[in-house]
């Protein structure tokens, strides 16, 4: 399959207070093929979030390159990459504009990566479409099209964020522990919805999760990060053989290993 | 007196609207206002004294304010100078610009035409009311049109949730610059209107105007809750008139006008504390519903 994203020798160092270099990503190589649904596991400080930020352009690499669909985007700003990459954040507050209504938020998402002109926004023309999309997730969001998203529950906001991120088929979808802030039941529902949306739209996706079950059940590839590197990269077949116990053992090893 | 206060309220409301477009929509305080307001006054008065039509003078004032906003915007977004400091820097620098424009600290409009002359057949102060209403209708309709365009929605989203806005490809730096440009243009326009109302422009005319602008905003918000964007802009106008009436009341009560700024500051301070006072005293809401 075609290569969608390639990180080559990706390194990110930041200087901490005592002027010591702290390496968060350490010469990391990663290739994502079109259609991959990769789950990403790793302890705190393993570099998962920094990996995501380097892909989206939220923070730029210290050295190394990022290539997207054959084009080098290493120094592209986040706004420019947003045309191809969309993201769902862990914090439900992060994914939507709280004072704007559900419909207004969806309209913003519809224009992802497109030029926004001084022309009427044409919200009415999209209403039926938005209603239908909201109905499809079955948590009553369609009744709240004119509600500011700040008034929605965390679960509703996260499912809206997911809708917004996938409304205009992104080349790459990044999910950053997007179910972590929800209660177990809502979290499960959102995860099932996520899987369905990815399947239906045949999206390429990277998903950070702290739930090992999810990492095993979902996706067709699994990577484990540690100390800014990829410690383990399992394909579909290898992943299928992996058990929850294997993962627990893996993480226990990590905890006792020195230097953390 | 009452009509005078209403006229003042309408003219100062233009300032409130200008401040609203950054303070409430982009969610940051822009101190450039204290420089762009007297800049607008200085440019308009100088232009009129040099024989330009008052309307053209106001256009020039608007453009000058936009320039000031652009500089603040560039310092803030490209120079990464904190927004408060960017505003203070531009405000400080504008002091010299204003002196350069007027070539003196104070310039009078005595015996020169003013924009209000068009309506001089009306009774006293009504000319101000009419001009104020016309300018407000123009500014508010243009802003509302803008807010409901694709670009305007991106502008609102930038202030609402910058992280999210960027993740959807909105150029948030550009939005902030646009906001600062138009906000300061409107504020300078307010300066031009007030200068023509007072009959002079003064290099120190900007001191304390942020308090006046914020007071109209806050009074409007305390009185009217959960309103649409259009109603919110109108509430700024009503807040501005209410503020002028409050000041009039304070003066009528016999307080010395020399110390007017402390009354301004106190009125704003009280309005800002109203939500807290309501909670503390467990008072029901007199007007509007509890948020």
From TrEMBL, chain B:
Its main location: membrane. One of its GO terms (molecular function) is transmembrane transporter activity. GO terms for cellular component: plasma membrane. Keywords: Cell membrane, Membrane, Transmembrane, Transmembrane helix. The chain crosses the membrane at residues 6-26, 55-76, 83-102, 129-156, 177-195, 207-224, 233-253, 259-277. It comes from the Bacteria. It is a multi-pass membrane protein. It comes from Alkalibacterium olivapovliticus. It is found in: Cell membrane. The keyword Ion transport does not apply. This is Putative ABC transport system permease protein. Pfam families: BPD_transp_2.
